[in-house]
Design goal:
Helix content is 24%, strand content 29%. It is α+β, with helices and mostly antiparallel strands. It has one domain (9-288): Carbon-nitrogen hydrolase (Nitrilase/N-carbamoyl-D-aminoacid amidohydrolase, 4-Layer Sandwich). α3 (165-173) links the parallel β9 and β10.
Length: 304
């Protein structure tokens, strides 16, 4: 299939694993998972967020910066070798050392021949209990893209990005066929009993809504296992353009989820639910504002 065209079925593989302290062990396991997925017919393989080690942001610890690497660097080169050896497009989130004191959570998109198609730096950076990412990561400065690959045009966000409909829309408007979200999301252990069901349901609902509102496929790869006070909930999934969940991984197992995505569905769905046709692009200027504060007595229906 020519780069970026929607002409056939694409087999997506989501690699859902537990992470251990050894970066080398995590990388070796992941490379084997890539090989296994390719042997089962995968065209594109997406890894979980910061797949090569325990999630580093549960506390503000300067020692964690030692884990970061430049791109290209040892880990991205190893992944490029795996992509070329097994003939798959590969998406991976890495702890990028861009310059002294400047770090990003960066996803790389690697083509089947091992060359780097492009990078995406996580734009939305959370700061919540157990997720102190603002201490580590500078917000991305590359915008929202759709990368042309032999597996179609692929939009890539990272974890917290998946909660923002504006980001999904911009990737769709750039021609994405599939949105990929490498993810590290889970329950705070002491909150799971009270909030766990609704938290997971909200996450899944957001992903399905992106698929519906934009008429494309959405895939999220999440890690599993307990790390510190977070129990990562797994449940990696793929949605079709109608928001149907084509496959979902378990909450608590290491699995590689393989799903066929018929990209010809995109045009069919969009002609029946023509949201892109009916968008009022002349009326959305307020979206570029932080909040639409209104002077006293002014109608709240007025768009600036």
């Amino acid at each position: 299939m020519p780069s970026g065209t929607a002409a056939s079925c694409v087999t997506v593989a989501l690699v859902q694993t537990r992470c251990v302290d050894s970066q080398q062990a995590n990388l070796d396991k992941t490379v084997q998972r890539i090989a296994d997925a390719a042997a089962q017919g995968a065209d594109v393989v997406c890894l979980e967020e910061l797949f090569d080690g325990p999630y580093p942001c549960q506390s503000e610890d300067h020692r964690q910066f030692d884990r970061a690497e430049p791109i290209p660097g040892p880990t991205s080169r190893r992944l490029a070798e795996a992509a070329a050896e097994h003939g798959v497009v590969l998406i991976a989130s890495l702890f990028e050392r861009r310059a002294p004191g400047l770090y990003h959570n960066t996803a790389v998109v690697i083509e089947r021949d091992g060359h780097l198609v492009g990078t995406y730096r996580k734009m939305h950076i959370p700061d919540d209990p157990g997720y102190y990412e603002k201490f580590y990561f500078t917000p991305g400065d590359l915008g929202f893209s759709a990368f042309a690959t032999t597996a179609g045009r692929l939009g890539v966000g990272v974890c917290w990005d998946q909660w923002f409909p504006e980001a999904a829309r911009l990737m769709a408007l750039r021609g994405a066929h599939i949105l990929f979200y490498p993810t590290a999301i889970g329950w705070l252990v002491d909150e799971k009993a009270e909030f766990g069901t609704s938290q997971h349901a909200a996450w899944e609902t957001m992903l399905r809504s992106h698929a519906i509102a934009n008429g494309l496929f959405v895939a999220a790869t999440n890690r599993v296992g307990r790390e510190g006070q977070i129990e990562f909930w797994g449940a990696s999934l793929v949605c079709d353009p109608n928001g149907n969940i084509l496959a979902r991984a378990p909450h608590d197992e290491e699995v590689t989820l393989l799903v066929q995505c018929d990209l010809s569905q995109i045009d069919v769905v969009r002609t029946h639910w023509p949201f892109l046709r009916d968008r009022r692009i002349d009326a959305y200027g307020g979206l570029t504002q932080r909040f639409l504060d209104q002077p006293p007595g002014e109608s709240h229906s007025r768009d600036p």
